[in-house]
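README: folding subset

This subset contains proteins for which both the sequence and a predicted C-alpha cell string are available. Records are stored as plain text. Below is the entry for Outer membrane receptor proteins, mostly Fe transport (812 residues), shown exactly as it appears on disk.
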Amino acid sequence: MHQTNHHLPFIFLLLSTVLFTYGQESITGKVQSETGNPQAYANVLLLKAGDSTFVKGTITENNGSFLLNNIEEGKYMVSVSMIGFKPFVTDTFDFDGSTKKNLNSIILSEGVELDEVTVSSKKNLYVQKIDRMVINVASSILSAGSSALEILERSPGVLVDRQNSAISLVGKSGVVVMLNGKQSYMPASSLVQLLQSMNASNIETIELITTPPANFDAEGNAGFINIVLKEQTDVGLNGSYALSFGVGNGTLTSDNINFNYRKRRVNVFGSYSFLRDAQGQLFKFDRNFINSDEIPVAIATTTVRDPIQRNHSIRTGLDYQICDKAVVGLLLWANDNKWTMDAINKSNETENDIPTSFVELLNTERNQLQHFGSNINLKHNFKDDRYLSFDFDYLKYRIENPTLYTNSFFDGNNNFLREELTQSDKTTPINIKVGKLDYSDQVNDKIKLGLGIKGAFSNFDNDVLVGTFQGQNLVEDPSLTDVSNLEEKILAAYSSIDYEISKKTSLQVGLRYEHTASELNSDKQGIVVDRTFGELFPTAYISHTINDTLGLNFSYSRRITRPTFNDMAPFVIFIDPTTFFAGNPAVQPAISNSVKFDINYKSALLSAQYSVEDGTISRFQSRFDEESERLIFGATNLDQTKTFTLTLGLPITVTNWWKIQNNLIYLNTKIDNTVNGSIFNFEQNTFNINHTQSFTMAKNLTSEININYNSPSIISYTGTGVLEEFYGLNIGIQKKFGERGGTLAFKVNDLLDSMKWTVTNNSPEQNLNTVNTFDFFNRTFLVTYSRNFGNSKLKSSRARGTGAEEEKQRVQ
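--- output ---
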C-alpha cells in the first residue's frame, strides 16, 4: 500500500496555482423600480426563446441582483414579475454557454398586481451535460408511484443488483450515491433499502456523474449518482402529496407529503413518506462440483420468499437569512426501514444423478435500519460571485439483522433424519462526523477559483453471532462469531480553476489530495488492519463549441474505490448450511484512471469512455471449500479491469405529440486476475438499449412506453459472474385535472413479467459451476393520485440557500 508522502501537500499547493478552467456559464442582472430602488424577492424566470418553455428560476437578493448558474448555450428570454408591478420580459438574446452574461438593470413599472403566472413546460427526460447525465424525473409518467430505486433500474447504464445490494454505472461498480449533493454514508445493503422506500414524487432530478470534478470526493470508480429533491420557492404555505396503491404478487402502497413555508427571512420545509411492499419473490440456486471421491455432485435449491418491507421517512429543515449576505440552515432527517421475511428453502443433493439428501430450511428474518442525520450549514456571500460555505454533518445508524433457521434433514429417500435450530444475529451501529469548508471566487470574467478542505471521521462496530440450539441453550460457533470495530479518518483538500480560453473553448482542471487512516480491531484477532496512505487525484475537462449545433468535451479523472467496512471486517455471515459471506481484512483500495470524449450535435450525444482500474474490488467473489463443500462469498482484489464504453443518446421528435428517446450503450470489459498461481483472463461485450416513447393524446392526457434490454454482461463486483440477458416493458397513462384537481396516473411495471436475473459462474480452477436465478420483480398494476396545495401563484419569495452544495463523502 502507498505510504504518505510529506511533500504531497506542497506539490498540491504548487499545482493549484497553475490550474485553469472554463467560464461561469451564468446570467446575471439587477431588478429595480422606476425610481431606482432595488427590488428584493422578485421572481426571475429564464425561458427558451421561441416556445417560452421554463429553463430555470431564481429570486432576487436584497440588493435586487440575481444569478442564474450553469446555463447551456442557446437563445433565451428573462421574465421578471413582482406583486404591485407589471410583468417584464426581456428581448431575445444569445448565450454562448461559456461565459458570464450581464443583463444590467431591469426596470419594473408599477401597475396592477399580477394575479397568476403559469409556466407550462416539459423538460427532456434525459439531458447530457459536460460531466453528467441529468434525468428529469417529473418528465416521465412512469415515475408516478415509483421509488428512486425503480427509476435507477430504468436509467441508461445503471444496473441494480437487489440480491447483493449493489449498484453499478456503465459496467463499473464503486458507485457513490448522494442526496442533494450530500453522501449518505450508509452501508450498500441499507442504501438499496432506502432508495426503494424513497418516493419519486419528492425527486426533481437524478444525476449520473461519471467524471466528477475535484470538489467531489475521489471515492468511487464508477462515479456518483446524485438524487436532487424538489424544493418549493413560493411565499406562504406550499406543498404536495401523492397516494399510490399497486397489486402484483402481493400489494404495494407508497405515500408521501411535503411542504414549504416561507415568510420574510425564514423558510421552513419538511416531508414524510410511508412505504409498504408485500410482494413475493422466488429464487433458484444450482451448484455443481466434483467431490473428493471424483463423483459429480449437484445441489439444487428453491427459495420461496414472503417479504414485507415497511418504511417511515421524515425530513425537516429551516433556513434563516441572517443578513443580506449570510444564510444559516439546519437540516434533520430520520428513517426507520424494517424488512421482515418468512422463507421456505428446499435443497436437493445428488451424486451421479442419484438423490443422496434433502434439506428443508425454514427461516424467519428481520433486517432493520434506523437512521438519524443532522446538518448545519452557513454560507456567506462576499459578493454575487464570491462565497464561503461551511457544513457539519452528524450521522448515526443502527442495523439489526436477526435470523432464525429451522433445518430439517432427510436422506435420499426423503426419510427424516434430524432437525437443527440455528440462529444468526448481526448488530451494526455506525457513527459519522463530517466537516467541510468551501471557497469560490469569480476572479474575473475568465477565471474562477475553487478551494476546499474536508474531514470525515467514522466509527463502525459489527457484532456477529452464529450458533445452534442444543435443547434450550444456544451454543455459539466460534468460527462464525466475532465482534469487530473499525475507525477511519479521511482528510482532504482540493483546488480547482475554471478558465475561459476563448468564447468557444473552456477548460477546467482540479487537484484533490486525500489522506486516509484506518484501524480495524477484532476481539479474537486483535488489530487486523492498520493502514495509512495518501493519494493525489487530478481531474481535467475541456469543452469546445464548434457552432450553434456542434460541441466537443474531453475529460480525465483519477479515482479510488476503498473497501467498505463490511468488506474488511473479519466475520462470517450465515446464509444457509453451506453458504456464507465472509470479510477479508487483506483487501486493498483500487485505483482507476479514466478518459472520456463527448460529441454533442443538437440534442444528440455520442460519448466514448475508457478506464483502467488496478486492484478492482470484487465484493462477492466466490470461493469453494471442497473439503467442507461450503461456498463462501467474500471481497478480494482482482489484478486489473479495463472498461470501454460507447454511448449514443438519440432523441427523436416525430410530431409535436409524439417523442422518442433512445439511449444505446456498448460495453467491453476485460478482467485480468491470478487464481492459484495461474493467470486468468475474461472478456465480455455487452449491449444496453433504453427506449422511451411519450405521447400527448389530448389536452392534459399523456402516455408513455419504456423498453429496457440488457445483453449478457459481467457483474464486476462478483469477479467473473455473468448476468444473462434480460428485458422489461413498462407502460403508463396520465390525466391532469388542472391545478385544483390534481393528477391521476396508471401504470403497469414489467408488463411481460420478464425481469428475472440469472447469474452464471463457471470456475473450473475452483471446481465449481453455479447458476442462480433471482425473481425480484413482478408484473404490478399501480394507480397514483397526486396534488399540490397552498399558494399556486408565483409571488415574491426568497431563494432557499443551504451552505451544502455538491459534496460529500464515502464510507460503508
